[in-house]
Structure formats: structure tokens, C-alpha cells
Give the backbone structure.
Amino acid sequence: MLTFGILLIIAVLQVLTMIFLSFSASPFFDLIPYVIVFSSVISSCWFYVAGEELYKRLPADRQFDLQRYRWFVIIPALATIAVTVAPGSIGETADIDLSRPIQLIGLAMGIANDVTLAKALVAVETKKKVTFGEVVGDFFLLLFFFIGVWWIQPRMTNLIDNETTIDPDAPLDHHLSQ
């Protein structure tokens, strides 16, 4: 899993980007698109790795479509890169500006990504089928990734570090022998 150090770098870069956006005369103003692309790529990598790790731990009857999830991660990242790096060149050949539809498609797929990951996280933790009502809190933590990752990442790390599951109905001395 991606560690807190990388996520801290992303958080600092995003905060600095927002600060520099308020000062259009800043010498760093030209770097803002690159910071946005960098943070988008790193956070997409986090979502990709998190989905892959949770998929391995889901029971067979509750697994999600992994190929579709991968597209849910890749398309919003590509949309962010396309709209950020080349905002004027998208749709310039036609009379229609294509940047808004690209952003809307990326947003819809990003929300679907957040829902899928939140459901998988709760399903792995509870070992049962979950509904959206049970994962709404995790969905909003993932939707507001900048803040929510600080609550989601420790849970993900705990799930990955504790590979062995303990049966609560087993005798206590059974757990000591392992």
C-alpha cells in the first residue's frame, strides 16, 4: 500500500496549489497544472492499489467487476490530465467545447469508483453483503479524498497487515497456538 509519506506530499502539494491559485502573479503559477496532474496520478495509483488489495480479500460471492473498477480509476485520471494539460486544445477543431463532457464523465466514473471501493472496504471488514446505506460514511471519506484518506488508510493497512482472520467462536487457546 502507498504509505502516509506519499499521501502527505500529495496533501501539501494540493494545499500549496490552492494557495498559489489565489495569487495569479506568483512565479509558481505556471506549475499549478503539473501539480494537479501529479496529485491526480498519485491518488489514482492509491485507488488502484486499494481496489486490487480489497478485491483479493473479498469473498467469492461478493466480488465486484475488477476490470470495470480499473476503468473507473483510469478514466478520471486521464480526464484530469486531458483537461488540465491541454484545456484549449480539447474540442478546438469543432464548435463544441468538449472539456465539460470529459469532466462530467470523469466525475461520474470517479463517484462510481468511490462507491465501489467503499462497498468493498466495508464488505471485507464485516464479511457480509453491504448496502449503500452502510457505506455512505466511507463513500464521503473517499469522495473528499484529501481529508478522508487519513481515516481510510489506517483501516486499509490494518486489513492488509492482519491477514489471519480469527474465528470468534473458536476456543481461546486455539488462537494462542498459531
In short: The CA atoms of residues 61 and 129 lie 9 Å apart. Residues 33-146 form one domain.
